[in-house]
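[Q] Does anyone have a clean structure-token version of this?
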Amino acid sequence: MRKYYLLTTAHLEDRLWFRNVQDFAIGMNYVALQAALTPGVTVLAFILMSNHVHFVLYGREAEVRDFVNAFKTRYSLYLYREHGIRGHLRSNDLDVKEIPDDEMEALERALAYVQMNCVAAGICGHPSQYPWGMGSAFFRSDGLPSGKTLSGMSGRARTRLTRTGLALKLPGGWRVSEAGYVLPESYVAVELVERLYRSPGRMNYFLNSSSKARKRLEAEDDRMPAFKDQLILQALPDLLQGLFRKSRFEDLSTEERAESIRQIRYRFSASVHQAARICGLSYDDAARLIDCA
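[A] Here you go.
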């Protein structure tokens, strides 16, 4: 029986799923590709975060699990080819929660929870401002399609989008953004979600009352990330070169590692969790280094 499900990968504490803009764009295209290859599954919502991903899908449980696991497998192969990272997501567990059919507000809350991840992380003020998900797809005020259609692109250009010839299986009417990824409104069930919420105001009510929104409000006086993981990661070699004449965290001594984490926290207003992800450490190891700094 087809049902609604909230699917979440475990948060990686000591590494990143997406290291740069290209990684995110490839991830977006792999979601689109999986949607095209899995007609029995409907995508209602998703978001790609630095160290985890969320989906709200409609289908049979085995099919929605296979959807996310196939996405993980395809992206793992990309990580190996592009960054030489092997087995990155092998132990990245998948949590699957069934959303009750007889409680539509539960589905509305799940959709809001997924969308608000970027806001809770301090990356933006509203889901519509985050490009690596579908927050800008709902209740568009202009109502105009953007981007160019896949049918207007050559087969070679379409293959470059996903790094695989399977891109030729994507519907020609789907549209591609200027950033080089298939726009979520091409395959996300936008009309279904808009009918569920009925109005932008009702959607905003659920966004602002979601558990992720409360997390952001509760943390307003605490240290919130001021820089995205990818920006700090990009700046890290120059920082290490300036401090220690070394460009890789792996080459640092224990004392240098402790000082580099202290500098990351000070210069980028980073939490221990964020600094640990950037440096490829567990939270406990990062905390121990801070204690000895």
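[Q] Thanks! Anything notable?
[A] The chain has a mean pLDDT of 85.
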